[in-house]
Design a protein that fits this description.
Protein name: Calcium-transporting ATPase
Distance between the termini: 24 Å
Main location: membrane
Radius of gyration: 36 Å
GO cellular component, one term: plasma membrane
Enzyme class: translocase
Keywords: ATP-binding, Calcium, Calcium transport, Calmodulin-binding, Cell membrane, Ion transport, Magnesium, Membrane, Metal-binding, Nucleotide-binding, Phosphoprotein, Translocase, Transmembrane, Transmembrane helix, Transport
Number of helices: 38
Strand content: 5-15%
Length: 1142
Amino acid sequence: MANNTADHPPGNSVAEGNHDGDFGCKLMELRELMELRSAEAVAKLRDMYGDVQSVCRRLKTSPIEGLSGNPVDLEKRHAAFGKNFIPPKKPKTFLQLVWEALQDVTLIILEIAAIISLGLSFYHPQGNDICGQVSGGVEDEGEAQAGWIEGAAILFSVIIVVLVTAFNDWSKEKQFRGLQSRIEQEQKFTVIRNGQVIQIPVAEIVVGDIAQIKYGDLLPADGILIQGNDLKIDESSLTGESDQVRKSLEKDPMLLSGTHVMEGSGRMVVTAVGLNSQTGIIFTLLGAGGEEEEKKVKKGETVRKRFITSGKLHVLMGPARLIMSAVTVIILILYFVIDTFGVQGREWKAECTPIYIQYFVKFFIIGVTVLVVAVPEGLPLAVTISLAYSVKKMMKDNNLVRHLDACETMGNATAICSDKTGTLTMNRMTVVQAYVGDTHYKTVPEPEAIKPQTLELMVNSISINSAYTTKILPPEREGGLPRHVGNKTECALLGLVMDLKRDYQPIRDEVPEEKLYKVYTFNSSRKSMSTVLKNADGSGFRMYSKGASEIVLRKCSHILDAAGQPRAFKPKDRDEMVRKVIEPMACDGLRTICVATRDFVGAEPDWDNEADILNNLTCICVVGIEDPVRPEVPEAIAKCQKAGITVRMVTGDNINTARAIATKCGILLPGEDFLCLEGKEFNQQIRNDKGEVEQERLDKVWPKLRVLARSSPTDKHTLVKGIIDSTVGETRQVVAVTGDGTNDGPALKKADVGFAMGIAGTDVAKEASDIILTDDNFTSIVKAVMWGRNVYDSISKFLQFQLTVNVVAVIVAFTGACITQDSPLKAVQMLWVNLIMDTLASLALATEPPTEALLLRKPYGRDKPLISRTMMKNILGHAVYQLVVTFTLLFAGERFFNIDSGRNSPLHAPPSEHYTIIFNVFVMMQLFNEINARKIHGERNVFEGVYRNPIFCSVVLGTFALQIIIVQFGGKPFSCTALTLDQWLWCIFIGVAELLWGQFISAVPTHRLKFLKEAGHGITKEEIQQEEQTEDVDEIDHAEMELRRGQILWFRGLNRIQTQIKVVNAFRSSLYEGLEKPESRSSIHNFMSHPEFMPHAEEEVRVPTIEESSAEIELLPSTSASPSKGGGTPPDSSLHTRKPSM
């Protein structure tokens, strides 16, 4: 029989068997069976079990009723066949993370230096003056004995650094695992249990479940087909073959986990889950090479042209810091050698060697501290904290972020290409107009107004020729609206049946799915759905069809007249109907659907000859379906336009419908110069005579294009790629795209940020996306823009603050060391300053909540420099103030405060008030400059909204309290001595003056300071060609490797120093690569969509085009259907139905 239905005996989930609680199929038998394909699989199935029904009986399940859902039964199945879950890789333990943090090169250098210093500090030569001014100035023997404290303090600081690094990595991994489990909970699949069609989490599927599969699904387990309609599967994720495989009971009933349903619908019995499924077996094999897998940088990931902020941090401090620290050490050693052995004329005595080595070690430690403060290694931490914080908050705004970097990229978006149905509209469709029996009804007609035979035909056609999973259920609460389940367009038609005082369910009960003789499911080339029934008397067949009105009417040769009798329907009648009925409906923003029928008498026709079958139809009626615009959308689009973002609507609907909706939404504004094109016309304008897309032609179209109607997913992908690759205009475009269907995959992948619909979206669309909109609402995209801009600004604030500290600390340490033979800031003090400017500052500045004001400025675009001229002005301005203050205190502080000078003090000398004041003032200036750093666009009020960020307030107050403790009680380990109240007040006053100085800097017009340069540019136009050439190159991103090791705290080691000589592509690949991708393989459901299993992004794969959304009835003219390029991403439709329809 044409629709592949297996005969089934009555049965239930606890069918009797001779196996006493055991099952008639062994785990290994089923595993071996699922490894076979095509005829071989059919033969083996027949030999081992007979048929699918026997498999169901042995598994104690009913093909119709499914399992009973009894917990005891489910537990037995778990025990016998396993759970549908692939265990995630074990997280690293805290001790492993500690060990990884200890691998940092700079830390190792510090540890060695500290150990040498510690060992040598216990050596005291005989005689006071024998080794020169070694112990001079030491007030008592006790102080000299305390020389070990500095080495011990450095070691202790290193331990703290390592523990904080490890804790950060541990908490980060925990957070991402939480995100992973949240994503997995979102994944549900339709099964039949106890006769009820229900959705359960993928992990709860068991062997023996009867699963309903439909267009757009990603199969979560292996199974054998019980009944199928026109089923085609993309098995490229397992086999690498891009051709779709037709599945049927006779030829190939084996369905495998991780494969995509590209067409049709059906039911299958689940035979293998979790590690026993084909996906699980491959995963088990891969598991052996887990370590290598982790080290390998995945090919194809570089194709995603992300430009996360630190990727723009272009050789900001380059090799200068390494040179500076080396020069510091060399100058200190030369100065000491010349002064000791030249000026003082001393001899090198054997017993003095340990003392001299102590000096050299001290100089070496000073050099390392210069290096420590010169590296802005807090940047990746700031990026991570900012993104992780934003991702958590964005969940509350209905944005489920799958790729961390997409969050920040969204802040720079300049264009959004949005679907219409469900995103801009409510996706609650209702029939509001109808054309039946030569009459155009502006409202739904009364049943009495329609001839009984016409009404009967219409009700039967709609009830039978729609997915049986599409239903209208009673409202959840009294007074509410009925619930629409499944395809929304079909729900509207079923709603019409109910408005006509009829019920569709008795008709479906009379003609169950098994009696459907042949089903032509909705796909991109048909743009319609048809169902064939065999007449009860066996005399022939009747076919019901429905689809986009222009498409179906073209195939109609008759139409039912006012008397309910068919009359001839000629091309001129059709043109008149389009003009008088369809266009007026479309101009009211309605989608038009035609319902038709055809009878076949005599010999059975060739059902595979679709051109003949889907022809000579008789039109029953044409209906106009309304999908109201979401009330909040016009305001959201207005916000986007104010924020400098162009919104374009890309839909498969009629151009008049699209234009009407776009006007209601505010996408089309009166008096604006814009284009509204159909897909066919769009292709004519952008393609040359050979049919190739030309960028120059596309550049003439896209800037004014606002509505692309009748578009195929190929058109959508072409438009997105063209806008991204375009170099016209001041800045390169950053494009966000929304999609819900399987075939939206290529466009979602190509876009800088792909948004998939959480409710209407297919699994395939969600896999291809970066962010899932859990409420399918356009307003959520606006919130994503706000959060993205906030992330970008947060990182810029942190950079402004940190680079100021870097510049000042390096110059102070370098100059101070060279002139006074000692760094004014000691090693342990430097580590504390580093803690302030890295972990604490990134916590404080990277967690600022967003404000609506972020939407009032234009987007930065793709090539905006990370450090603007205003920021450069702030960095240099504050650095000048801090340097002047620090050097004044260093060389004249003792006179100002009337204390002893701390300069040129000997080895192991006690801490001086002089250097304590310098350290304290330095920290106070950083603390108050942190408040200045909250604003990066030259705003005057730096305290605005500070109370809304409790983390910032806590960090600043906490740092201040810790500084008091360190200075007053830190003693020798921190090289501090307690200060008086007067001295404290002066330190605080100098710090507060930072705020006043900040006001002065913001008053200086930036445009007057011609010498200021920007830094950290993005991709320039010249680099575009080069960028495209590298798409296929297996490129290793060094900063990503750093992240994978989890070392994103203070000392970034020589590897980092070397790699930053080139452009630091810090997060160019998705940040998740280093931070456990949220779609990590712990879920069997999404395991097969990993890059290793997908065809390479640039391979040509034949993808049938399908309209923008299968929840919409796409009304594309057949001429626009063309094969689409784009990775292994399959065609698409987001039906929630068993049979893809419309």
